[in-house]
Amino acid sequence: MIDDKHSILFKTIGFNLKTKRLALKLSQQELADKIPKMDRSKISDMENGKEDFVFSKLLNLCDALEMTLEEILKETKNHN
Q1: Cβ neighbours of 79 (radius 10 Å)
Q2: Which CATH number is 11's domain given?
Q3: What is the pLDDT of residue 2?
Q4: Could you tell me the pTM of the whole model?
Q5: Which of 1, 36, 50, 68 is the most buried (most CB within 10 A)?
Q6: What is the reported pLDDT for 64?
């Protein structure tokens, strides 16, 4: 469960993950297949700001999507 105090950050990360994944024309399953011990439902939960994940998963996603941590944490006005 996501703490309300951090929910905006988790939603920001999820929005940026989904935006990049779609730009790369990857399905959630295709992205999950690129990351050890990651499944499609976890990708979905992360994209929807519902998953409290460990930092290593975030780093693996950044690698798979060729993103930096700065990019994944960048706030935009278009999400929520």
Answers
A1: 15
A2: 1.10.260.40
A3: 64
A4: 0.85
A5: 50
A6: 96
